[in-house]
Amino acid sequence: MLRRTFRSLRHPNYRLFFAGQLLSLVGTWMQNVAQLWLVYRLTGSGMDLGLAGFMNHFPVVLLAPWGGMLADRCDRRRLLLCTQAVALVQAALLAYLTLSGHVQVWHVYLLAGVLGLSQGVDIPARQSFIIELVGREDLPNAIALNSSMFNAARLLGPVAAGVLVAVAGEGVCFLANSVSFLCVMAALLAMRLPARPRPASGERALRAIAEGFAYAWRAPHIRWLLCMVALGSLMGVPYAVLLPIIADRMLGAGPQGLGLLAGSAGLGAVCGALALAVRSGARGLGAWIAAAAGVFGAGLLCLAASTALPWAMASLVMVGLGMVVQMAGANTLLQVLSGDHMRGRVMALFSMMYMGMVPLGSLLAGWLCDRVGPALTVGMGGALCVAGGAVFGASLGRLRRHAEAAVAAGGGR
Fold it and tell me: Of the candidates 384, 28, 406, 381, which has an alpha carbon nearest to the alpha carbon of residue 223?
């Protein structure tokens, strides 16, 4: 069982990638939680928390199409080295401003926007880079292990951030995150990769981007998967920007409670990612995605009804499990069903739906929270996620036929 679950780690390049990313992502989650608490401490506003989430993710929408085109045309390792360097500088500047006592909320918004721009290139490059490390056969397993890594960091990082913020302040979390990016850069430089042939196509960048959009739109199975990712990111994932208010106002738990809540979602997500890693192949994954959307929404409904920290933590375990199976499952199917020449651009669209919808949802959640309260805001998002999962599940038979026809015609090769 263990051998099958962790089979992608037999590839030396993937082992380097996995170790570097794990250390860096712990720092990233520490920064995410500390940044939310910093904004809440400076403003006390749900709208400002939503705006911070918007600035963190909306630039992905602007740059992801270009990032996907670059990922299909350029050396992906070099792209990743550049994006990690930008993220390192961003975290170091935020650490300096906070530790020196000069930080203002507009500094946080501006630097969050810089990080979002780098992620617009980083995410499609990183997602489409995985197949170079493990090959097509181990790709579903590697994507599931990536989700395990991401969510293990999501479990460890927020808990560490809650303790550090309470003891030493937010700036220490930002400083630790800046150092963690060095681990990723060292791992990338240590890899031994064969030379990647340059694409023969000389088409212009805008035409290449438009071709990616058209490719996804013409394939119903890809289009529906992207819609499911967009729905979860718009209506479900933004619960995270309201966690400081939930921890403080609904539960009276403070920054340490915030860390425990975020860590509980991480625990559920690790369980979901490991369940995906045990699977072999992608067949039947559509049904998992539909069911996961229902679990995600049900967890949010339970969170909205929570009046005590243990109940909220249990609800967030459901939220994390459902969210990661839905998102990582969609990621796997999109990569398996996309042609090699289009994988970077399809991953750019995944980035736009996954990361790009979150800022819009964050603004909406912040606006609603200030008017109807955090419980009703989270509950409405959960109900829509449940409904979306039901509609997707009812459409699976037709979508499966489209996917099988595309693979038979060579669209998944």
Answer: 406
Tokens of 45: 């506003």
Instruction: Name the DSSP letter for residue 136.
Output: T
Using the predicted structure, report yes or no on whether residue 269 has a pLDDT greater than 70: yes
E strands in 8-163: none
How far is residue 175's CA from residue 92's CA, in Å, rounded to a whole number? 6
Q: How far apart are CA 375 and CA 302, in angstroms?
A: 10
Give me the helix-helix angle, 170-190 and 12-43, nearest 10°. 160
413 pLDDT exceeds 50?
Answer: no
Distance CA 391, CA 317 (A): 24
Q: How many CA atoms lie within 13 A of 13 on its CB side?
A: 14
Closest listed residue to residue 315, CA positions, set 324, 328, 306, 325: 306
Return d(Cα 401, Cα 95) in angstroms, integer. Answer: 51
Check residue 47 and give its pLDDT.
Answer: 77
- Answer for the pair 108, 54: CB distance below 8 angstroms, yes or no: no
Q: Can you spell out the DSSP letters for 260-272?
A: HHHHHHHHHHHHH
State which amino acid sits at residue 296.
F
* CA atoms within a 13 Å half-sphere pointing along the CA-CB vector of 202: 0
Six-digit token pair at 240?
Answer: 């995270």
With 0-12 CB in 10 A as exposed, 13-18 as middle and 19+ as buried, what is 385? Answer: buried
Sign (positive/negative) of CA torsion 318, 320, 321, 326? Answer: positive
- The Cα–Cα gap between 262 and 46 comes to 17
What amino acid is encoded at 292 in this protein? A
At which residue do the structure tokens 């599931």 appear? 144
Q: Where are the alpha helices (DSSP H) in 191-235?
A: 205-218, 220-231
Better-scored residue on pLDDT, 322 or 166: 322
What letter does residue 410 receive in the DSSP assignment? T
Angstrom CA distances, 122 to 52, 98, 343, stand at 20, 26, 14
CA distances from 141 to 21, 130, 404 (A): 16, 11, 21
Does this model's pTM top 0.90? My answer is no
Give one word for 192, left, alpha or beta, with left for phi > 0 and alpha for psi -120 to 50: beta
**pLDDT value of position 412:** 46
Ordered domains of the chain (ranges, CATH)? 2-190+204-408 (1.20.1250.20)
